[in-house]
Design a protein that fits this description.
This protein is an alpha+beta fold and 197 residues long. It folds into two domains: 76 residues, Glutaredoxin (3-Layer(aba) Sandwich); 101 residues, Glutathione S-transferase Yfyf (Class Pi), Chain A, domain 2 (Up-down Bundle), CATH 1.20.1050. Helices cover 51% and strands 8% of the residues. The chain is built from seven helices and four strands. Strands 2-1-3-4 form a four-stranded mixed sheet, covered by helices on one side. Strand 1, helix 1 and strand 2 form a beta-alpha-beta unit.
Length: 197
């Protein structure tokens, strides 16, 4: 199984993290985004969106970190990571939507601006980040995990860009519940770091 990867990408890291936690072997294929490899063959033939990550598992070819997490969890991770019970599955899936929307457009965009110089609206990104981080701080009050009282792919999906929030100029010390959750994720067996963490 091959993951087309960028080491500094939080979206790629979600997949690497879940694979490590679940002991799913991955072969990493680095993609030179700075050199434009994502915009030309052979990569663009795999993913016309020109984005990483991309997972190739035999005949299965997937783009988008949330979709890849769902695939890996259902194919290799068992009921604990993504249960088949409709209500439990929906509880996990709502966090994948949060990762792809509020977190992507808040903490992730703030990091893209501060760390990589993207020409995006930093004030809007910080406003969105503070809103979602406040909501998550309240959600994690009295909870150890985002969903179902145990680690799931919800935690893998949300973790990178919250843990990397300081790289976007967002201090975490005002969010003790988020910090405690980050520590719990780091304490999971087989946890792997990424640059910046």
């Amino acid at each position: 199984m091959k993951l087309y990867d960028l080491s500094l990408s939080g979206n790629c890291y979600k997949v690497r993290l879940f694979a490590a936690l679940s002991e799913i072997p991955l072969t990493l294929e680095p993609v030179d985004l700075q050199g434009g490899a994502h915009k030309r063959p052979p990569f663009i033939d795999l993913n016309p969106w020109g984005e990483v990550p991309v997972l190739q598992d035999g005949a299965v070819l997937l783009r988008d970190s949330q979709a890849i997490l769902v695939y890996l969890a259902r194919r290799y991770g068992g009921e604990n990571w993504l249960p088949t019970d409709p209500a439990d599955m929906a509880e996990v899936m709502q966090w994948l939507s949060t990762a792809a929307n509020e977190i992507q457009n808040g903490p992730s965009v703030a990091r893209l601006i501060a760390k990589f110089g993207f020409a995006l609206d930093k004030a809007v990104a910080l406003q969105r980040a503070e809103r979602i981080m406040g909501l998550m701080e309240r959600h994690l009050a009295g909870r150890e995990w985002l969903a179902l009282g145990r680690p799931t792919i919800a935690d893998c999906a949300v973790f990178p860009y919250l843990a990397l929030a300081p790289e976007g100029g967002l201090a975490l010390d005002a969010y003790p519940n988020i910090c405690a959750w980050i520590s719990r994720v780091r304490g999971l067996p087989n946890f792997i770091p990424m640059p910046g963490l």
